[in-house]
């Protein structure tokens, strides 16, 4: 349950969809206060809920209401409210967002409970009027939800029985922990976004001495997380949410069914690897891309590239890039990306960018034009002449706003950490994620 709900009104000078408004909110606020207050990361960690938008279009203009559930404290929620008012455009149209209210959900619920308790007392305790505090205490005891704790040096969200229980349930994020606590599972602990690049040491230690069940979302990202965690920690069993669903949104019945259908970790991994191999073969047959051939003696595989956390699956237009290092002769090797040739040095530059929050702009000759902070990328791109920039490689999320501006400036290739909430992809741009490249070398 969220602590607060931010209500805001939006006015757009054009006809847009709900997804356009949500994309604009993420795009305009991205990077303003660094990673610690990035809306997408806050949402992934369960600190803010799903953004809800209701709109109506009249005479070529769009108006509506935005609702954002918040589990932040009062000051952080106020900052969130001020942050969304920073949105100035939705797509090509001018827009204005004005916060109209911040609802304290807990206070509203408490008032309803107190009012209802008074009604019950008057209706069912006519002969003997009990003390209202006694009623409130009993109601509070009946509806009490186990409080979340923060376990280990990494302060991972967990249930109160994580230390005493012989079996632990490992989930992805804080919102997943809260949902399992709601249905009585008190031996749960979250990876809290640390998976992908590094599994928390606390998880590794707990899994080594307890029966460990890994419970992930029912999407492609959940599979990737499971594969990485199994490689590092001693996981005994794996289970998943139903396809397309997240653990945080499951009902008690769905959670029980998923835990009943868990499989040994080794069996899960073997099944996953077989399916990935089958999909790769189908892709080769569909695209006509030749399978990797044995390399001559002068070529050796490059050093293993670390996997990026929370990777987004590639779009249909995105193909896998295989990065290699040529020892002799000293020439630049070029690999195809969906029909687009990208030199090896671009892949190497991408490896160096991880964790820097920087972007590199390349011209048609693959020369570096400029390096800029990710937060200034869109603004910088708007200032360059059309056709001057051919490719962008950056340590950040590929957003709808970035794609729209890049398309206008004639950019042909964008390589980023992951793909954000994209409602439409320009046909003249190839989109590639670090995961597409790194998965080959892992």
From TrEMBL:
UniProt entry keywords in alphabetical sequence: DNA replication, DNA-directed RNA polymerase, Exosome, Magnesium, Metal-binding, Nucleotidyltransferase, Primosome, Transcription, Transferase
Biased composition range(s): Low complexity: 282-292, 300-309
InterPro entries given in the database record: DnaG_primase, Primase_DnaG_arc, TOPRIM_DnaG/twinkle, TOPRIM_dom
EC number: 2.7.7.101
Family: Belongs to the archaeal DnaG primase family.
Entry-linked PANTHER family: DNA PRIMASE (PTHR30313)
Protein name stated in the entry: DNA primase DnaG
Gene: dnaG
